[in-house]
Amino acid sequence: MSETLTPTAPRRLASAPKIGIVSLGCPKALVDSERILTRLRAEGYEVSPTYDGADAVIVNTCGFLDSAKAESLSAIGEALAENGRVIVTGCMGGDEASIRDTHPGVLAVTGPHQYEAVVAAVHEAVPPAPEPFIDLVPEQGIKLTPRHYAYLKISEGCNHRCSFCIIPSLRGDLMSRPAAHVLTEAERLAKAGVKELMVISQDTSAYGLDIGYAASSWRGKERRAHITDLADALGELGIWVRMHYVYPYPHVDDLLPLMAEGKILPYLDIPFQHASPKVLKAMRRPANQEKVLHRIAKWREICPDLAIRSTFIVGFPGETEEDVDFLCDWLKEAELDRVGCFKYEPVEGAAANELEGAVPEEVKQARWERFMQTQQEISAKRLARKVGTMIDVIVDEVDGEGAIARSKADAPEIDGNVFLNGDTDVKPGDIVQVRVEHADEYDLWAIRP
Ligand code: SF4
């Protein structure tokens, strides 16, 4: 007998109910999606890779920029059209009214990190099967990333108030996880075959501040909830550990000896955002980039292999051509390895919207092109120095034509690749030594000797 469903009627299913998930936004949102799925799998739900096969679809949205909001609304629309039973969560879920204005048919809207609320909404839409298959959940949880790398979230929220950012109002002030929780999760992931961990948060260097850097026990030793202690402990796992979203506090200097010793990867993702003191002040960010240049030089003395990745914003209100000159000169001096650049977009609710001196779109575009051209030359020069050297790479994908890998200087999704053309004798997750043969401004080509 078939049952007629209205779009909002709960489904009762004989077999395990299936949930689809569309995960938008940053790696932090991806970790939230993984947590939601882990919880649902523990209750007996299955994960559907297609709209068709799902009894309901969760859309984990991003609400950081207006373009991300538009992408989120379109993803919700697509899920409604393809499946019809949609639960919205994530950053944009904090603004239920604008979601419901565009898509009144969504079943529920929950905000960021409201795991309980998302799971409750799923229960309401698709009740769990009577007997949860608890043993179906792998010990390391459900990961949406390939098996050989995973994201490790150490805290939520942020105590800063950068004028262009609404994350603190969406996600609240810093809330750190106890060190033992983080380390136990990392250890499980390593045991399950993960070879590379990306440490993420909104502000990785502030880790533990809110809990007084409280110590907790892991592997029989007390570990402080402090980024240097955490990095040191993660170094015991014998896998690649990569630091993201590091705000440039003075104690970041203490991570460099750990990198030089090989405990964590020689990689720092520090979003500098700008270099001009005037713009940084308007952004409410630390504004002493002269000092930062000295620190970068010192970091490279301690750890010559250090790769620095950063992001910048051009076209911030009040930014002048002189500010962009300053930024490009700073960039040439800093010689960062990997750089992303955004054109400023006013985000609803951000303090920067009150600032005068909006930069016209075509000027933003011209400044962005100038910035990218400057960085491309720097990046090409730095990568060319690697030709002829031996480096370790981790393999991400292999097909009939060869393998795509990454070096220690390349985070997945955001940095470059190392192409091993014709090398099919490796598998994803393998870490192998290669000799670099060729470089362009983003990627390397290498062979195994
Ligand atoms: S440090 Fe990052 S998350 Fe915190 S307010 Fe600034 S931009 Fe936003």
Structure characterization notes:
This protein has 449 residues and is α/β, with parallel strands linked by helices. The chain has three domains: 18-125, Rossmann fold (3-Layer(aba) Sandwich), CATH 3.40.50; 149-385, pyruvate-formate lyase- activating enzyme (Alpha-Beta Horseshoe), CATH 3.80.30; 389-447, OB fold (Dihydrolipoamide Acetyltransferase, E2P) (Beta Barrel), CATH 2.40.50. The chain contains twelve helices and 20 strands. The strands form six sheets. Strands 2-1-3-4-5 form a five-stranded parallel sheet, sandwiched between helices. Helix 11 runs parallel beside helix 12 (361-384). The protein is globular, with a radius of gyration of 23 Å. It starts with 17 loop residues before the first strand and ends with a strand. The relative contact order is 0.08. Bound molecules: iron/sulfur cluster. [4Fe-4S] cluster 2 binds at residues 158, 162, 165. Residues 17-127 form the MTTase N-terminal domain. Residues 384-449 form the TRAM domain. Its main location: cytoplasm.
